């Protein structure tokens, strides 16, 4: 018997020492998850394994050991999910339910199953004004085959010139695992796909023209699928100086005209070619220094300041050593001494903990190169270190590694009501940690908020005094929307999200606290003392797994989306930031195919008033007979005024073929709110519909109706269409082109007079 099945002897499975039996083809982890084994033809084939940093080894529902993700299980009963109904409806919110964004247990690691919608029903909501609106409600969840997920990372790489203007990394190379993974375009932009089994995305950016420093960055990405965009700043490379190899080198790097806190000394004749042969001749050197006293320089700093054994670091400065011969070939350097004045170390206890570290560009981790000894000199007490060889790791860092690492919980919400059911996925939370007395940064990091879970930020928790270090947090969505931090006015725990006892330890304050600034997008706390840093109910935790699995009722810090005129309603609710777990195969879904996402925008001009107006697009089934006239969704946004007139870029549902191979031409109705009359329609757009016998009946002079074009029209029609593998990226590009009024470039500034589809004449 193999399990409960009678098989031939050669088809028997494997027995292990614990007495457990595994059938042929099954796989499992050992008791500590440090080994993964496959049962193949009665023999065990095992290899080294181990859990990722955010996982914990434990037993699943069947008692099998595996690396458990910090998520809830897939229960049949949906979790609560409220959506906002259109403004015309008297009911503001309705609970439509949702399924947890989790993978399901499986004995086969190659057969990943996901929690998703099994049953749903259409529900009519009485708006109280004689109207009803239909919405799909999830009634049962279950495990099924996962939708094929595409993980994409896009970015724009740039540095800053002396005058503050941007220097794009034009035609640069993006390395991953020592291989070219992508190249940047003329504007410094790149795109690359990421495999689902990647634990840590480490990219190195190289400037072919040597204007910007070669920089290694650790980038967050959506592990459950989807695209994320990063604005990536890298340091400007220091200008080249020349000297003879037989001379003693004595360098004091500068940053923004300010001398660094360190000196670099190199003995004569210490330069070697890659072959190991000594080099004699003229040397071209460039030492780029990243100065923590410049509080914004952390934005360009490499890596995420973590040691190879996982400890958090506190930096006193980074510097890149670049030495070359006159043919521009790299030279290795031996016999280097690094000195730093001990008086620069504001925290006296750290003087004897200081060490020199080098960055490994393959994994983005820092490796110990030796201690910084405290010695007496003519300049006073200095910290000094000797480096025998600078070769492949050319970026050095003077740091103290914190002996303890903790995690703090941050959540993002759709509004400042901070409703549990209104959490926002994949918000990028950034933090910078500063030494209060010296006003310089010591560490930085970032984390993404996960579906229903929030984000966990790595922090140090070995602080002896809560007045030594502060941490400032900011949050953004899709690299373009800054979120508001919870207000510190009144120190209300129900708003900030942290209990009164916790607030008393951290001095929470938002950036507008005191009325000096109107900025509301960040908050600052003092890092609590080590004996009071962590608590079983947050917001600080000793263990990352405990932080990620902490319920929403625990203490946590909060951000919320800013109030906006943009409104989106879908009959089939969907989270575009978490598209692959919330997509449903039904004809009324806004995005008919999960493999490609085509977004469409129409440009509308408002004349007769300088005031901005809200413009609506109502999208219904236009030609498919079995669901004719039913609602896909509604979009609203405000027009943008130039002081005389205004324009709006409004999304509408593209026409297309659904997964059941049924074609529909969406009926789109564009209506400005106000006393408006339809004016001119773009001639090319009218001709397009006329030639295809797709002219829509105009039911009102205050609106414009059309069948959504089946073709990907461009700016000459006032229609802007983009297709990508991710809905967020598709919409950003399409709307950006619409605002620019061209199909070739994007803009965040509305060009009111360029290439609109329809004009409305509106009264004040």
Radius of gyration: 30 Å
SS content category: mainly beta
Strand content: 35-45%
Strand order within the widest sheet? 21-27-28-34-30-31
Q: Helix amount, in percent?
A: under 10%
What form results from the Cα inertia axes? globular
* Model regions low in confidence, pLDDT < 50 over at least 5 residues: none
Q: How many strand segments?
A: 58
Number of domains: 6
First-residue to last-residue Cα separation: 83 Å
> Number of helical segments?
6
**How many strands, which pairing sense, and closed or not: the largest β-sheet?**
6 strands, antiparallel
Mean pLDDT across the residues is: 89
Describe the structure.
This protein has 764 residues and is mainly beta.
Please give a handful of descriptors for the protein shown.
Immunoglobulin-like, globular, mainly beta, 6-stranded antiparallel β-sheet, 764 residues, 6 helices
Layout of helices and strands:
Elements: E1 14-15, E2 21-22, E3 27-29, E4 35-40, E5 43-48, E6 56-59, E7 65-68, E8 82-84, E9 93-95, E10 103-104, E11 113-126, E12 132-145, E13 151-160, E14 166-168, E15 173-176, E16 179-183, E17 189-193, E18 201-206, E19 215-219, E20 226-233, E21 241-244, E22 249-251, E23 254-255, E24 258-259, E25 262-266, E26 271-272, E27 282-290, E28 313-324, E29 332-341, E30 355-360, E31 365-371, E32 373-377, E33 380-390, E34 395-401, E35 405-413, E36 427-435, E37 440-448, E38 455-460, E39 469-477, E40 481-482, E41 484-485, H1 493-496, H2 500-506, E42 509-510, E43 522-526, E44 540-541, H3 544-549, E45 557-560, E46 567-570, H4 579-582, E47 597-607, E48 614-620, E49 631-638, E50 640-641, E51 646-652, E52 656-657, E53 663-664, E54 667-672, E55 676-681, H5 683-691, E56 704-707, E57 719-724, H6 727-740, E58 758-762
Parallel strand pairs: 13-20, 35-45, 47-58
Antiparallel strand pairs: 1-2, 3-4, 4-5, 6-7, 8-9, 10-11, 11-12, 13-14, 13-17, 15-16, 15-18, 18-19, 21-27, 22-25, 23-24, 25-29, 26-29, 27-28, 28-34, 29-33, 30-31, 30-34, 32-33, 35-38, 35-44, 36-37, 36-39, 39-40, 39-43, 41-45, 42-43, 46-49, 47-51, 47-57, 48-49, 48-54, 50-51, 52-53, 54-56, 55-58
